[in-house]
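Retro notes (design track)

What went well: tokenization of the new backbones is finally stable.
What didn't: we kept losing track of which sequence belonged to which structure.
Fix going forward: every design gets posted as structure first, then sequence, in one message. First example under the new rule, 334 residues:
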């Protein structure tokens, strides 16, 4: 078996120029012209010190098929298209030009006989896919027939020996005025359920006079709208900001807009609704997570635990929420 010394003689097949495994082989081989291509492949393999099992592991082709290719024993090989693929993989494993080796194999190997055989080790059963279906169908049919026969036998045994005696008709009630009893009670499903009231709304609408005390009254005797908004914002938080600025401590959702930020100190749920009840944001916030409110009017924040959420306006803390439902517009009032 000649080795690759840089020049390839006429008729010989050299190694691949794009062989990525060339550095793993001790030498580079070329395919000689002596004998058939199977014998030349065997000589190249032995020159590299490789066994048939080594080629089988690289190509995923059975070692028995490798030996049959080298011996040109086509009775032990599957159909010709499969063998061509085996030869191409074999040549690549040796670092040879695979297409040139396949062309030589096609020229030297006998032509296909027209019968496409399955790869070795594969058996074909035409009825394998429907055999169990036929068995189950036969079992179900037999069970239905047996059940019908048993039911017919039961009906025949239970047939009455004689016709039942006619029953006497009840006597007609005596003529006279009809007596009506008390009306029955109203069924439970017809009662009117109590009107549902959202928790917290009554306390938001009714502001005690003590909160707005000190506000300059208007001409009509009521507190000014600015003082009312300030009192409303005071009741929406605990009024203990501590002077701490907003500092992200977890994920921050939403986009900067109105300057209002709600930050969770402990895990709690947050649902932000807009006019008409449309949901703009809904999520369970973990400790340190925050949500930045957009510049949209009419947003209301609903939290599972108000004391777990701290409100920031313009980067400064306004304290923690005290209600489960808080209009965001009132937080931004000075």
């Amino acid at each position: 078996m000649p080795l690759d010394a840089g020049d390839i003689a006429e008729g010989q097949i050299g190694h691949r120029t794009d062989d990525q495994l060339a550095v793993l082989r001790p030498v580079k081989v070329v395919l000689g012209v002596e004998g058939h291509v199977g014998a030349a492949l065997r000589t190249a393999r032995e020159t590299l010190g490789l066994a048939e099992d080594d080629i089988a592991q690289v190509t995923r082709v059975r070692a028995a098929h490798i030996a049959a290719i080298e011996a040109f024993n086509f009775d032990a090989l599957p159909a010709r298209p499969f063998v061509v693929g085996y030869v191409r993989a074999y040549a690549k494993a040796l670092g040879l030009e695979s297409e040139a080796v396949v062309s030589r194999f096609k020229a030297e190997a006998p032509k296909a006989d027209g019968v496409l055989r399955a790869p070795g080790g594969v058996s074909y059963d035409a009825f394998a896919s429907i055999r169990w279906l036929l068995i189950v169908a036969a079992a179900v049919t037999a069970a239905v027939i047996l059940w019908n026969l048993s039911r017919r036998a039961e009906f025949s045994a239970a047939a009455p020996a004689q016709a039942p005696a006619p029953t006497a008709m009840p006597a007609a009630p005596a003529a006279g005025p009809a007596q009506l009893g008390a009306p029955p009670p109203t069924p439970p499903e017809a009662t009117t359920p109590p009107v549902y009231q959202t928790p917290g709304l009554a306390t938001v609408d009714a502001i005690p006079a003590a909160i707005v005390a000190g506000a300059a009254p208007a001409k009509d005797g009521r507190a000014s709208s600015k003082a009312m908004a300030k009192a409303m914002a005071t009741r929406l938080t605990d009024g203990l900001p501590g002077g701490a600025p907003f500092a992200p401590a977890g994920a921050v959702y939403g986009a900067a807009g109105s300057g209002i930020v709600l930050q969770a100190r402990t895990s709690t749920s947050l649902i932000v609704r807009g006019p008409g009840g449309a949901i703009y944001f809904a999520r369970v916030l973990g400790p340190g997570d925050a949500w930045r409110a957009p510049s949209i009017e009419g947003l209301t924040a609903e939290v599972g635990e108000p004391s777990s959420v701290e409100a920031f306006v313009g980067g400064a803390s306004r304290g923690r929420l005290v209600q489960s439902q808080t209009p965001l517009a009132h937080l931004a009032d000075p």
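Added context from the reviewer: The chain has a mean pLDDT of 75.
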